[in-house]
Structure formats: C-alpha cells, structure tokens
Specification:
Distance between the termini of chain B: 28 Å
Largest sheet of chain B: 8 strands, mixed
Structural class of chain B: alpha/beta
Strand content of chain B: 15-25%
Oligomer: heterodimer
Radius of gyration of chain A: 17 Å
Number of helices of chain B: 14
Number of strands of chain B: 23
Shape of chain A: globular
Order of helices and strands of chain A: HHHHHH
Structural class of chain A: mainly alpha
CATH architecture of chain B: 3-Layer(bba) Sandwich
C-alpha cells in the first residue's frame, strides 16, 4: 500500500450527470492524466484529485474553447495506442502507457500540451471547479489558500504558512 | 438612422485610466461631459481571489467588445498573420483596465522626454538606433511635473521619494527626476521576499527602493489600505484599495453633475463636418445607433482602438481617416519590450500573497543611468522583484532541467519547488521604428463588419541588446540573493501588448506627429487624443501615471481655452 491518500476505485470518483466524453474518451483521459500525475508516495493521483471532473465541467461550458481539440486528441491517443501496442491506452500497463505519452509529447505536442495544461488547472484550481479535491493539489505545493487579507507573517521567507482550506466559491465549507 | 441626442460640450470616448481622469477637470470647470463607455460599472463584490476566473479564463476582463477587436499581428507585410490570442486583458468597463492593472504608478525620467538630444550629446548621433523614428517629446519632464503631482494626490499613490527638488534620499529612487514633494502615502508594506531582494541589491552596491503604486498603503480619501490578498493581477480590488478611476476621479466628476455616463455604448465612428471639424460621436447601444453631438471630442480608448477609430472615421473631408492627412495615424507604434528571467531558491520564498506593485526595484540599469559607451545600445531596463503568485501558475513552473515535465519525478519537483521560484518584471526602454506600425487588417473584421487593427512589427536590435544586458544584471541580483539557478530566456518581439504606445504621437511637427504638445490634433482642432498612443518613448517603466498626467493636462488646456478650441 502506498503512502498518501487511500486508493479509491476510479469509477467511484465519477460524477453523475451529463458529460462531454464518450466512455472510451473518458477512460483514455483518466489513464492519461493518471500518468501525468500518478498516485504515489507524494499523494493522490490526478483522477483522485478530480482532474477529469474539472475538465468535463469546463467543457460543458460553451464559453470554454478547446473541447473539439481535446476530444479529437483523445481519439488520436487511443488510435496510436492500438496501432503500436494493440490496445487502447487505458488497457495498457503503466510502463507502456508512459511510452505512449512520450510519443505524444514528441509528436503531438499541441494535444499533449493541452492535456497537461488542463491537468495542472484541475490539480491546483479552486475546488469549486471540480478539481483539487480535498485540497490535495494545494497541500502538495504548500499553497496556503485564498484569504481576503494577508498579514506580514503570511509573507515571510522560509516559514510554513498556516493553510486556510476553504473555497472562494463556497466548496469545502459544506455548501 | 441614428437617434440624435442633446448636444454636450465634450464627448469622451472611453472611461478608463485616461478618459476617467480627463472627465474630472472638465466637469469641475463646468463643462457638460458625456462619458461614452463600451463597458459598464463593475461590482467590487464580484472581485474574487480565484485564479481560474481571473487569470486562466480571463472572465473578469474578457468582455466581448475588447476580445472581438484584438489586433492581428505580423512581422512584415510579406510574413503570415499569426493567430490572435483568445483573450486580451485590455478591458471595457467604467474604470477600464485600471480596475485590474498592477497599478505601478511611475513618472518617466527627464531623459525619456529628451532621448534624442541627450543621446547625441553624450554618445553622438550614431548612437541613435538605426531605423528608429524617435524624436524628443515636445514637452520636457519639468512641464509635466505639476500634472504628475496633481494625479498622484488626486487618485492616491504610495511610494517613497528619492529626489525632492534636488535633495536625494536613498530610501527612495535616487535616479528619479526631481519631484516637488513627497508621495501622498508611504510605500506599500514590504514582504519578506522584498527585504530579501533588497539586501541582495545592497550587497551589490545597487540603490534598491520600494516601487510606487496607485494602491493605498493606508486609508486615503475614505478607502482602506491594501489587504495584500494576492489576487490583484487581472482581478479587481475587493476593498477598493486599488485606485482605479472607477473609485477615484469618475465618482468625483459625477459629484459635479456635469458628467453623464453612457455605458454599454460602443463608439463606431467620430463624425465630422464639411469643414473637417469634429461634430460628435456615433455609437451603438442595445442594437440602436445614436449620435451624440459634441463641441469637442476626446478619444480615450486603448492605443490600438485610438488609431483604429481614426482610420475608420473616413469622410469627404478625411478620405484617409480622421486627422491623417500626413499618413501618421498608426505610425510610431511600439509594444513595450520585456525580458524573462527565472530563479530557483533553496528555501520557500512565499510570494503567494501581496500584489505585483509590492516590489523592490533596481533602476541602476535603466534609461541613461550608466555609461553606454561601447555597449552598442541605448536605454536599459528597470528590474522589479515583486510578490503575488497563484497555485496553477506556480505549479506550471519551469523544471530548471532538474526534473521531467510529468510523472512522479515532476510531482516531487513541484512539491519541493513551486514555493521556491520567482520571476522579475523587467521593462526595457523602447523606441518607435520604421518597420513597426498599426493599420487596418484587410481580412479580420469585428462583428459589426469593421476591420480590426493590425500590428506590423519587424525585428529590433537595440531593444534586444538592452534587454539581454539587463537580464544578465538580473541574474547577478538573483545569485547575490542566494538563487540556486537562474534561467534567462531569449527576449521576444512584443505582439499584442498591454503596454502599447504610439499611433497618434505627440510632437510639434505635423508631418511626423498626429497631436500637438497639448494633445490636440494638428489637423482637426476640436479633436483631442488621450492615452499612451501619444507617447513617443516608453521609458523603462509602466505608462499609466504618465498617461493620466497627460490626460489631465490636455483636459485642463481644453477647459482654460474653451472658446478658442470649441469655437
């Protein structure tokens, strides 16, 4: 058993309701982001942190651009994965998944860059957007949390700032 | 047909940093002013410490008009036009971009106003950058000083003077040009990081100082001091401690009852008569077109829109666009050069909170503060070590060649170091060039069918050299502060910029300038222009205070010479 958060089955983390992804697209994205930010001794992985939920909710909003690029990109990832390893990304062992990601990083930089950027957003956003679940992202990097005023002590070099763990939009406070 | 409105004395197009200041002296002088603004009032209660909302999605700033009019960019007339950014932070609102800007509130130096003369005198004519169209400003620093002072006290600027009437104070910026008195408020509180960088600068023998900010360091005019909550950049101030025109000059002007604000009103053309004089402004509000007659029009949209609106306002009297008989509208445009440097420290720097104007600055390597003999460039850069960092941005850090870009190795690296890196704000003296201008795009149009502005900007030598020179100084500063590693990135030619200058340059010669030394058109005498579009040099620092001092001065000139200008 790894240190950090307990492993939770991926399916238990899926929100009910409308989604922009097909089942295969979702499996591909889950596998992809969990290699970008794996569950390990440093803490929970991307899916546990709500990254896919963040991306799904983002692209449910018609104002957010990039959905078509992402969906086409996920199809391309699985097509490449099938072609080179005989199975979609989600069905490959982690080491083989990494070789697919490396190939995407080298040959499809735009798609790789988009998924990586969205993963960072989902890991470290305000939790009201669906990511950074249980503030795991903010805990990881020691971000002490949004507050309406910061004291001189909140701005000292080389100290541990006492974190505030609330969402500016209400999440995390039982709302 | 447009709906005709009751005539006013002055129509001001845009109530941002410039127009929002100009309305105050006009209204106080008793002139009836129509403030025509494409955006509307923002509610301070909607300003949130939310990186996704403010910074990732630009939802505070991404009002439709501004984003549908983002200029196109190409390097030369034969190079391809690059894709436009989806969001540009120049904002339509009452208060405009002064709502979410960094509020660094500088005066330019005497040298910035007389660069050509000073460079020729010290280094000879050959030191003027090749291909540059730079001229001395038609006014000297001393002529603008009273207006700087007025604006600093009216809106409220925090800072520490370094030169009061020739008496130097090492606690302030000793390189500044003389000011008549101290700032109205002491500098913003310093963060640990500011002190840390200050000590390092002093070790190098550099005269570091706290930066000036249009942010309250204490209660001022009934509004509170800064809370340093760390969401100032591209976010509005939740307690109105940032002195945008929406909380300073505009409310003051409204108290006179002489200012009427027309919000959500998108100006499409400036109207002119057969004699070429300006007669008023056409705008669209809720799909209806209105004509606002005015004796005088002041254009105070952003740099790109100032040139674009003049070029779009064609008529029989102005076949090439308003005030463009000499083909100077759009010329002498430039975006402010900047240099990227990154530093990795061995301990948590904790720059999360604060505000970008909470900064320790070094001015040793800006302007003409050092001997340029044999260096091959003029100018230099100011360097700012500032606070405010958000978590997504922090984690998106460069891994300094020490870790992969993803996986467990990356995760461990950001766990250790997201708190431990900083980047400075470097601003380089920038000049206008023959290879750089604005005009109308021949393909991309806004939803009304009007062409957007197009930037053409070729390569520069002087700005690259000046920026690279100061990036090395920044590296030296960081290493003196104990940085483990410093990365200097290759300086890039600015594209669509939040520091955009020129296009309607101010100067005495009507063959090379659009407006005269007072800010009025050489060709259309009842048309005034406000904003950085009149500036012929950038200085090595933020433009807004200079824009505001010039705007106040132009408005004051109009009020005092009303009869001769309005006829």
């Amino acid at each position: 058993m790894l240190a950090g958060a307990a492993l939770v089955p991926i399916t238990a983390l899926r929100a009910a309701g409308p989604t922009v992804f097909s089942e295969s697209q979702r499996r591909c994205l889950e596998a992809f982001v969990n290699r970008l930010v794996p569950h390990d001794e440093y803490g929970p992985g991307a899916v546990e942190c709500g990254v896919v939920e963040y991306i799904d909710r983002s692209f449910s909003d018609p104002l957010i651009g990039g959905k078509e690029t992402l969906l086409a990109g996920l199809e391309a990832v699985d097509a490449f994965s099938r072609q080179s390893h005989g199975a979609p990304l989600a069905d490959l062992p982690p080491e083989t998944q990494d070789t697919v990601l490396i190939a995407m990083e080298n040959n499809s930089a735009a798609v790789f860059g988009l998924i990586r950027r969205l993963t960072l957003e989902g890991m470290f956003c305000d939790p009201s957007y669906g990511g950074n679940r249980n503030f795991a992202g903010w805990d990881l990097i020691r971000y002490p949390g949004p507050r309406l005023a910061a004291s001189p002590d909140d701005q000292r070099v080389g100290i541990a700032i006492k974190p505030v763990r609330t969402s500016v939009n209400g999440a995390g406070r039982g709302h | 047909m447009a709906i005709n409105l009751k005539p006013v004395d002055v129509a001001v197009i845009g109530l941002g940093a410039a127009g929002g200041v100009a309305v105050l002296p006009l209204a106080r002088a008793g002139l009836k002013v129509a403030g025509i603004e494409a955006g509307t009032w923002m509610d301070p209660h909607s300003f949130k410490p939310d990186e996704i909302y403010n910074n990732v999605r630009g939802l505070l700033t991404s009002v439709p008009k501004a984003n549908r009019e983002i200029p196109t960019f190409r390097e030369t007339p034969s190079s391809p036009t690059r894709p436009r950014p989806a969001v540009h932070p120049m904002m339509n609102a009452v208060g405009g971009t002064s709502i979410h800007y960094w509020a660094q509130s500088w005066r330019l130096k005497a040298w910035d106003f007389r660069t050509v003369s000073e460079v020729k005198k010290r280094y000879g004519a050959s030191a003027i950058p090749a291909g540059s169209t730079v001229e001395d400003w038609p006014l000297a620093y001393d002529e603008l000083e009273p207006w700087y002072d007025l604006v600093e006290y009216e809106i409220g600027v925090s800072g520490k003077a370094g030169n009061i009437q020739g008496t130097l104070d090492p606690l302030g910026n000793v390189f500044e040009s003389p000011r008549r008195r101290e700032y109205p408020m002491p500098p913003l509180r310093r963060a640990g990081y500011n002190d840390h960088m200050d000590e390092a600068a002093k070790k190098l023998g550099w005269k570091s100082f706290p930066g000036p900010a249009a942010i309250n360091s204490q209660q001022y005019n009934g509004r509170p001091g800064c809370a340093f909550h760390g969401y100032c950049s591209r976010g509005g101030c939740h307690i109105s401690a940032k002195n945008s025109t929406a909380v300073t000059t505009i409310p003051e002007a409204l108290k006179t009852k002489n200012l009427k604000i027309f919000d959500r009103a998108q100006v499409t053309r400036i109207a002119t008569g057969a004699d070429g004089r300006v007669t008023g402004v056409l705008y669209i509000r809720d799909k209806k077109e209105y004509f606002q007659p005015a004796h005088v029009v002041l254009v105070a949209s952003y740099t790109y829109e100032n040139s674009r609106l003049l070029l779009l306002s064609k008529s029989k009297a102005w076949p090439n666009g308003l005030s463009n008989r000499h083909g100077q509208v759009g010329k002498h445009y430039f975006g402010h050069w900047s240099g990227s440097v990154l530093a990795l420290f061995p301990q948590d720097m904790n720059v999360w909170y604060g505000t970008p104007a909470q900064a320790t600055l070094v001015d040793e390597w800006a302007d003409d503060n050092f001997d340029h003999s044999g260096l091959g460039f003029i100018g230099g850069s100011s360097m700012s070590a500032y606070t405010e960092k958000h978590p997504i941005d922090a984690a998106a850090m460069d891994t300094f060649g020490r870790a992969p870009a993803w996986g467990s190795g990356w995760k461990k690296f950001v766990r250790d170091n997201a708190c431990r890196w900083t980047a400075p704000y470097i601003q380089t003296n920038t000049f206008p060039y023959e290879n750089t201008w604005l005009d109308l795009d021949d393909e991309v149009r806004d939803p009304l069918g009007d062409p957007v502005c197009r930037i053409t900007s070729g390569p520069k030598v002087n700005e690259v050299r000046a920026t690279e020179f100061t990036q090395k100084k920044m590296e030296q500063w960081y290493l003196a502060a104990g940085a483990l590693q410093v990365i200097r990135r290759t300086p890039a030619n600015p594209t669509v910029s939040t520091h955009a200058y020129g296009g309607t340059r101010m100067g005495d010669n009507p063959e090379t300038n659009v407006v005269d030394r007072r800010g009025f058109s050489h060709e259309a005498p009842n048309l005034g222009i406000l904003g950085a579009s009149v500036m012929g040099t950038s200085g090595a620092r933020n433009p807004t205070l200079t824009v505001q001092a010039l705007a106040w001065r132009t408005a004051d000139h109009l009020a005092k010479n009303w009869k001769s200008i309005a006829v």
